[in-house]
Design a protein that fits this description.
mainly beta; 18-stranded antiparallel beta sheet
């Protein structure tokens, strides 16, 4: 019964396409929204503190983009801003869980900008400019078209994100490092035949898209930039035409050659410098650990703790490595844990260190998020055992943890209200105290060995500089670095000298400054970047960016340059619009519901050749907290419909639903001893209305339930041996409850590690009709994914569904990747079960064809086992004893297959053999479209 009576019925039909339960977005806050209008914007907010800045920045950026694009947007643009990123992660406007790395987004259907406000003034303005550029892009591409047409326009991601970066008018410091690194190592991504960029990291569309628009502007002028945008609007997804070729009439190889030449010329001065590898041998772990986001040396200096990507697990871990050869000694945060969602880190080194070691080397500190708050986690440095966790209530985006010498306190930075501060937490009682004043935006902190001086970085306009102050009183604050650029990652060499990273002369080099004499020494001259310097036992340790990766290096100090730092005044003002208080309106009620979008037709194709299609239409309020939706599907030749209203404004989501579903399965084909080989189709029509709810306990666990009145009609002409019909018609009141656990981690092709569990119980109470529907149902669906290296994994699934009582329901299984050797939905009974074991492995990651890119292409070896039992009729699983076992009523299959992705649809081609465990009975080829379990 679970398959027809679970909480959100349309998603059960969607599950034929995407059969995953999903993690939980938890809505902790009940936001009291207000609205304020400027000339071109509707600004929606619940915390007024940064309203004047956002109003001023938005209008400035609008005028700038109007001149840049030649476009004027007539309607007012909604800007929805949240006080901080934690609140921002609760928005219902983002499709799914909002990652910490997402700083904001704009959506194309109703052209809303959604941002958090916990940024420095310069970063906030840049973010508004970036996201507002997307609104102008949407206007260029989609104005005058129906919402469904949005899905037909294929725009390369580098155009969308690259132009948004280009429109800000400046380069952020770290993206320059990634560009220069690619040019120096001949790793510049190339435009593919379909218009996308090939290769590199997730930053490629942003950074190289920005560089491409710089190149187009310098070569063709702004006329060329605008021509590219108006040209790309002509393209449809089925054509997959390269917009560069059509706009500028250049073959992609020629265009790529010209682009590389442009970058080499532009960054020629950088390319004459050294690479990080010229300063020492990399001391970095090997695959699957890639990238070192930050690190901390142990007190002895023999071991380093690194915060890195565990590629094979699609996770972030803290790993101990030997400083002799980079050998991995221990992963101290292995596997999936429910203690925190993810270790907090920053991809950009200016975000600060993510981990700290205490003076004795016994403990380590890092930040993560659990439930509503960020937390400081203290673990055993070598065993990984969690020793303590402290809730950082009302402190967001924590970074740069630093132990006091006695190990009783941790100093760190974090965001609170409008600014970023330095905090101190007492590890004994968990008490948090704010140390710094409120006129700085602080990212990083370091303490001198004698603990009398504290250094920190603070943002001034678009620059970052180093300040020092007496500690612990935080008195006599003074700035000590002044040159144009970004000074980050301060660390004390001794009580008087601070070593840091700076791009004041181009690439991020290593410098030191004497806090008394203000003498600056430069130790490197690199084209890319050296970060997180630490000085120990006469040597400098640092991470260097080289060949699209962060590696750990060790070098002896070699002074390249000396000078005295000179003070200068840095002019920066924060404009603020004058807010007319009488124009602020409190938003009440749901407000107007507007069309969100119409989806393109979704498709699945079963192993017996039947096609499933569906479409979805929704209307929601400005915050997407309330949604009215209509869903329709065609399965085989049976139509189903669903109309619902969902309220997801608070933690407890609920919905009201009315629906009619026509479902089918095949009766009798595999039970000749009772029914004969008659592949008769059975239609099950379910009509009703219900109330559903969804309550997340945390990120991984939730409870779902529903209650409603339903009418069921089943029909076919086949009789049971007893003469009674196998099928029911009647009206009943149904209640059900589900407990869901989902820890699965995904890559582009599907699950890679983790586990899933769904427990279901439902009860039907008779109300009337031909049959008194009186039963209860239970269901268990458990899955486990074990990564065994790179993208190889073992996948297991165990499923059971049983219905009991006076009128038990039938359930059905078979086909696709349930039991492959039988027909689709052809095994049925009042109890059904199956078990799958699969070995999944990569074949290729991408393949270019005349109809587009297909990939990744993956292989699978599989074994299926299952069966069904009806009521009290006998069911004999097998006979014989191990190893000479023969299946009797149970069914097994094995085989191999390939999976490829075309237009994002997973397509499966499989060779399947049915077996009774003694011999192979027959073999078949299967073709189906849908996601793996």
């Amino acid at each position: 019964m679970k398959k027809i009576l679970a909480i959100f019925i349309p998603f059960l039909v969607f599950s034929q396409l995407i059969p995953y339960f999903g993690k939980n977005k938890v809505i902790y806050n009940d936001f009291k929204w207000k609205e304020y209008h400027t000339q071109h914007f509707r600004i929606l907010f619940y915390d007024r503190e940064r309203l004047p800045e956002i109003a001023a920045y938005a209008e400035q950026c609008y005028e700038k983009l109007k001149l840049l694009t030649g476009v004027e947007i007539k309607e007012k643009i909604p800007i929805i801003y949240y006080k901080n990123h934690f609140d921002f992660e609760q928005t219902n406007l983002y499709p799914g869980i909002v990652p910490e790395e997402i700083l904001g987004f704009s959506e194309p259907f109703r052209r809303r900008v959604v941002i958090p406000a916990d940024l420095s003034p310069f970063q906030l303005k840049r973010l508004i400019n970036h996201e507002l550029t997307h609104i102008f892009e949407f206007y260029i591409l989609y104005e005058g078209l129906s919402p469904s047409s949005i899905f037909r326009i294929q725009v390369p991601l580098w155009m969308m994100e690259g132009f948004a970066e280009f429109a800000t008018g400046d380069w952020e410091p770290f993206p320059v490092v990634t560009i220069v690194d690619a040019v120096a190592n001949d790793m510049v991504p190339q435009i593919s035949r379909t218009g996308g960029l090939i290769g590199g990291s997730g930053r490629v569309p942003y950074d190289f898209g920005h560089a491409l628009f710089d190149f187009i502007r310098d070569k063709y002028g702004m006329t060329g930039v605008r021509k590219l945008w108006w040209e790309v609007k002509k393209y449809r997804i089925v054509r997959y035409t390269n917009p560069i070729k059509n706009t500028f009439h250049l073959e992609r190889e020629i265009f790529h050659s010209q682009f590389k030449h442009y970058l080499r010329k532009r960054f020629a001065e950088y390319l004459r410098r050294d690479m990080p590898d010229d300063y020492g041998v990399a001391i970095s772990p090997k695959f699957p650990y890639t990238y070192i986001f930050s690190y901390q040396l142990s007190p002895s200096g023999e071991v380093a703790a690194i915060l890195t990507v565990n590629y094979s697990q699609a996770d972030y871990d803290i790993v101990l490595i030997s400083m002799r050869d980079g050998r991995v000694l221990r992963n101290i945060t292995p596997g999936i844990t429910l203690k925190y969602q993810k270790i907090r880190f920053g991809y950009d080194p200016s975000s600060g260190r993510g981990i700290a070691w205490n003076k004795t080397g016994e403990k380590m500190a890092f930040f993560g998020k659990r439930t509503k708050y960020y937390r400081l986690f203290i673990i055993d440095s070598f065993k990984g055992k969690l020793l303590k966790q402290i809730k950082l209530k009302d402190v967001y985006n924590p970074s740069s943890p630093t132990f006091s010498s006695d190990g009783k306190k941790v100093i760190f930075t974090g965001f609170q209200k409008k600014n970023a501060f330095i905090f101190e937490v007492n590890l004994d009682n968990g008490r948090i105290r704010r140390l710094s004043p409120g006129n700085f935006y602080i990212k990083e902190v370091a303490i001198s060995p004698d603990e009398k001086t504290l250094a920190f970085t603070a943002t001034i306009g678009k620059e970052e500089h180093i300040f020092i102050t007496d500690f612990p009183k935080m008195s006599n604050i003074r700035q000590i670095t002044f040159k144009n650029g970004v000074d980050i990652n301060p660390s004390f060499m001794d009580n008087e000298n601070i070593i840091f990273s700076s791009n004041r002369e181009g690439g991020f080099d290593l410098y030191s400054i004497n806090i008394k004499t203000m003498e600056v020494k430069r130790y490197t001259r690199v084209s890319t970047g050296c970060f997180f310097p630490q000085f120990k036992d006469g040597e400098i340790y640092f991470t260097g960016y080289f060949r699209n990766n962060f590696r750990l290096y060790k070098t002896e100090p070699d002074i390249k340059q000396k000078y005295i730092e000179k003070e200068r005044k840095i002019a920066w003002s924060t404009p603020a619009a004058k807010i007319q208080e009488n124009k602020i309106r409190l938003r009440k009620g749901i407000g107007k519901l507007s069309l969100d979008f119409t989806t393109p037709i979704s498709i699945a194709y079963s192993t017996d050749g039947r096609l499933f299609t569906s479409a979805y239409l929704s209307f929601s309020d400005i915050f997407a907290d309330h949604t009215l939706f209509f869903y329709a599907s065609n399965d085989y030749y049976y139509q189903s419909y669903h109309l619902g209203f969902v309220n997801q404004k608070r933690r407890l989501w609920w919905s009201l639903n009315g629906f009619q579903y026509k479902l089918y399965y095949f009766f009798g084909y595999y039970y000749p001893q009772y029914y004969g080989y008659v592949p008769s189709i059975v239609l099950r029509k379910l009509t009703g209305a219900n109330f559903t709810f969804y309550y997340p306990f945390d990120f991984y666990h939730r409870v779902e339930g529903s209650a409603g009145i339903l009418n069921i009609k089943e029909n076919t002409g086949t009789l049971l041996p007893s003469g009674k019909y196998f099928f029911y018609s009647g009206t009943f009141f149904n209640v059900d409850l589900q407990l869901v656990r989902e820890t699965t981690r995904f890559k582009s092709f599907g699950p890679i590690s983790g586990d899933t569990l769904n427990l279901y119980f439902g009860k039907a109470f008779p109300l009337g009709g031909d049959h008194k529907i009186d039963n209860y149902s239970i269901s268990v669906d458990a899955r486990k994914y074990i990564n065994i290296g790179r993208d190889f994994l073992l996948a297991f699934r165990a499923y059971y569904n049983g219905s009991f009582g006076k009128t038990p329901f039938l359930s059905y299984i078979g086909g696709n990747n349930e039991i492959r050797s039988v027909g689709y939905r052809a095994i049925l009974g009042t109890q059904t079960f199956f078990f799958n074991a699969e070995f999944r492995f990569p074949i290729t990651y991408i393949t270019y064809t005349a109809i587009g890119d297909i990939g990744p292409i993956r292989g699978v070896l599989f074994f299926d086992l299952g069966g069904a039992k009806y009521g009290s009729y006998p069911f004999k699983f097998a006979e014989g004893s191990f190893p000479d076992i023969r299946l009797v009523d149970a069914i097994a299959s094995y085989g191999y297959g390939v999976e490829l992705f075309l237009f994002s649809f997973p397509i499966h081609i499989e060779y399947v053999k049915r077996t009774d465990l003694r011999k192979t009975l027959y073999s078949v080829y299967n073709f189906w479209i849908g996601y793996d379990f």
